[in-house]
Amino acid sequence: MASRSDRSRTKTPPVGDRISSVLQESRSFTPATSFSARAHVSSAKALAALRRQADADPVAFWQERARELVWFRDWKRALVWKHPHAQWFVGGTTNASMNCLDRHLGGWRRTKAALIWEGEPGDVRTLTYQQLHAEVCKAANALLHLGVKAGDVVAIYMGMVPEAVIAMLACARIGATHNVIFGGFSSEAVRERINDSKAVVLITQDGAYRRGQTVELKTAADEAVRRCPTIRHQLVLRRTQQPVKMKRGRDHWWHELVDGASSINEPAQLPSEHPLFILYTSGSTGKPKGILHTTGGYLTQVAYTCKMVFDLRDDDVYFCTADVGWITGHSYIVYGPLLNGATVMIYEGTPNHPQPDRFWDIIERHAVSIFYTAPTAIRSFMKWGEAWPAKHDLSSLRLLGTVGEPINPEAWMWYHEVIGRGRCPIVDTWWQTETGAIMISPLPGASTTRPGTATVPLPGIQADVVRKDGTSCAANEGGLLVVKHPWPSMLRTIYGNDERYRAAYWSEFPKRRGHPGWYFTGDGARRDEHGNIWIIGRVDDVVNVSGHRLGTAEIESALVSHARVAEAAVVARPDEVKGNALVAFVTLKASATPTPALAEELRAHVAREIGPIAKPDEIRFTEMLPKTRSGKIMRRLLREIVTSGVATGDVTTLEDAGVLERLRAGEEE
Ligand code: WT7
């Protein structure tokens, strides 16, 4: 098995122009007839027919899906495409909150559980669709009371509590654009995201429970907004009861303002292209990108994919372990499941509190039937051992999903056997913050799956693996993953920076005479002889750590902001659990001496500047970084050094060849 595990580590960023993938996986799994018989798409044939229909006319295909939402007014044009800007369902008006809530109140789902929430300390709350609707209306009225208007941005900096979902839907209800900031980010990161989005209100909580401790969110929020001139109010949920400072006139308790508000609120009738949310993600330069998603197209694709990929049914209990601070939380904890009237299980804390079987315990006690998590989490479960899931009755499970990074076949097999007990199909879903919704994935009742591949693009999605010159790659030839036709839930721009939007996604395969211009995902991939797409990894300076995208430039600029650091270069090396670990090469200012204490201090500094997720696993002090004659740091060489110990590639552009020797020597210390 060891050799297999070595072979499956294909996540090392590709070298130069050559994209290589060595993974070969021959095991395949077809859905059980008992599963297929009840599935929305129940055979390979039915899926092929759907795909043919979508390929023939993708816009008509999506138009049909959009009709499953409730619209106040019908659209006039399904797609207006002015490269690289798409508008979907133009002329139509709708509301995300109304589609997630009000539409379910007319029938039996009124009393169905919308959210089953479990706090880390063990407290449980269930909100039916009617109850969730009432809470959202109250929160919407509270926001209106604070002067929030349609088009304003509201920042949400919370843990995994029902009020985070309520806050998002309340924004959507009145047409405010939410900007959810992951609760693990530091005050610096919060400030940057608030200022870039010009948010007028910040919704937060006193503290959050995490790993048996409390995280001080309000304190961090206060620290952040000290230099956020646009913030007029904070709305503060009481969760941990820890003492916090409330600033008169600016800060308001949720239980005072929201609980006292009316539960009657008419959803705003918003244009299809009304901005629903901004969500920041890392890019290859230092500044995070505010990915902008709008309403009608986003809801259409999220609703459709959630229903089809997870084969959602009314009797499911659906549990996605992501945080609402990431796109997975937006699309597949909040909007996708609620649009479908599903019951969503939400858990506040960490999977190993109080013991490493917390998820299995939750699945057993709440009869979870669909479980969606990340490969990094699965690798942690593997490390903790089979005894933990073995203690629990997991027979309620019928479907498993993964997202965030390529899943190594060992982890896939373990997930299949130990969690799914060999009965549950696995959907490996490829998508991005930018794509808004799932793009490449099996359909569980119809697709043949193979451990390690997200299989093929969903009907309505035209993705391909191409060479730099735009021609399609041959079978098993590595290339770049592109999307050739606009899709409903695609990002509309980078908030406040359309130039960067064009440069980041549309410059690799630009529109020119005879070429329509394609969206470049940033991922390298190959298609196998069956047409399945295998993601190799990012081809830019973005690394995926524990399923989260981090820009190396962002971490480098955090390091360089430390008084003793002269220069830094951050690269990834493969890691058993996290997928990638971060190694920072740091050169110090002349006055500073490299010590283990300083390395620790630098790690803590990054945690403060960005958040603990960005903390380098290893700091390597060096007197010099390998650079080209024009002064560009050759990260490729550093990557080779951290992965294989030697830099074997082309070093002729290196300014000072001796630096490699010294870097290697440094490693042996
Ligand atoms: C990047 C997007 C989409 C929600 C989570 C991450 C990688 C994502 C898969 C998968 C292989 C995957 C890609 C992608 N990725 N899912 N199933 N197989 N790689 O969202 O932070 O926007 O990151 O995650 O590299 O580009 P994100």
3D structure, described in words:
The protein is α/β, with parallel strands linked by helices. Helices cover 31% and strands 22% of the residues. It has 21 helices and 30 strands. Helix 3 packs across helix 4, helix 8 (187-197) crosses helix 9 and helix 11 packs across helix 12. The model is unreliable at 1-18 (pLDDT under 50). 5'-O-[(S)-butoxy(hydroxy)phosphoryl]adenosine binds at residues 281, 327-328, 403-406, 428-433, 454, 521-523, 535, 538, 544, 547-549.
Structure keywords:
single chain, 669 residues, alpha/beta, GMP Synthetase, Chain A, domain 3, 8-stranded mixed beta sheet, 7-stranded mixed beta sheet, 31% helix, globular, disordered N terminus, binds 5'-O-[(S)-butoxy(hydroxy)phosphoryl]adenosine
Précis, in short:
The protein is an alpha/beta fold. It is 31% helix and 22% strand. An eight-stranded mixed β-sheet has the order 12-11-8-6-7-14-15-23, with helices on both faces. Strands 5-4-17-16-18-19-20 form a seven-stranded mixed β-sheet, with helices on both faces.
The whole-number mean of residue pLDDT values reads 93
| Overall form | globular
Helix amount: 25-40%
End-to-end distance: 31 Å
Query: Which class do the helix and strand fractions yield?
Result: alpha/beta
Assign the CATH superfamily of the domain at 539-668.
ANL, C-terminal domain
| Share of residues in strands | 15-25%
Bound molecules: 5'-O-[(S)-butoxy(hydroxy)phosphoryl]adenosine
Give, in spatial order, the strands making up the sheet with the most strands: 12-11-8-6-7-14-15-23
User: Are there runs of 5+ residues with pLDDT below 50, and where?
Assistant: 1-18
Helical region count? Answer: 21
Q: Taking Cα atoms only, what radius of gyration do you get, to the nearest Å?
A: 24 Å
Task: Indicate the CATH class of the domain at 539-668.
Answer: Alpha Beta
Largest sheet: 8 strands, mixed
